[in-house]
Amino acid sequence: MNAPRRAVLAAQMRESLEAIQEYTTGLTREDFLHNRVVQDAVYMRIIAFAESARKLLDAEPGVREELHDVDWSAVFGMRNVIAHEYFNVLPEVIWNTVRQDVPKALALVRRLERAA
Predict the structure, then answer these.
(1) Number of domains comprising the chain
(2) CA–CA distance, 62 with 90 (Å, rounded to integer)
(3) Each residue's pLDDT expressed in tens, for the chain with a length of 116 residues
(4) Domain span at residue 41?
(5) What's the rounded Cα separation, in Å, for the pair 36 and 9?
(6) Measured between alpha carbons, how far is 42 from 36 in angstroms, rounded to an integer?
(7) How far is C-alpha 100 from the chain's CA centre?
(8) Is-contact 95 31, C-beta < 8 A?
């Protein structure tokens, strides 16, 4: 993969994760669980993140090693549930992901972006 394409995909991943943080900043768990608009926005950004990540990993398998702390099967699995089994999404699981995994993934993606 050429460096500009890698940089674009890494930027898309970062933008999605930053948007998730923006949408949920200041919210409590209960706020999130009762706000379907925010839930929908977060779900869409999870899908966008996973799509950009899949394109990057498919084109450049070495990135998987650079981002070895990310559980890619969980990322793609969550994307698939949101996209294909929308009414089975558990907002509590998404909330936990937002609070626990998004900040870690964002730090890794920023590192990847700087290296691109």
Answers:
(1) 1
(2) 32
(3) 577 888 999 999 999 999 999 999 999 999 999 999 999 999 999 999 999 999 999 998 888 888 888 899 999 999 999 999 999 999 999 999 999 999 999 999 999 888 86
(4) 3-115
(5) 28
(6) 10
(7) 12
(8) no
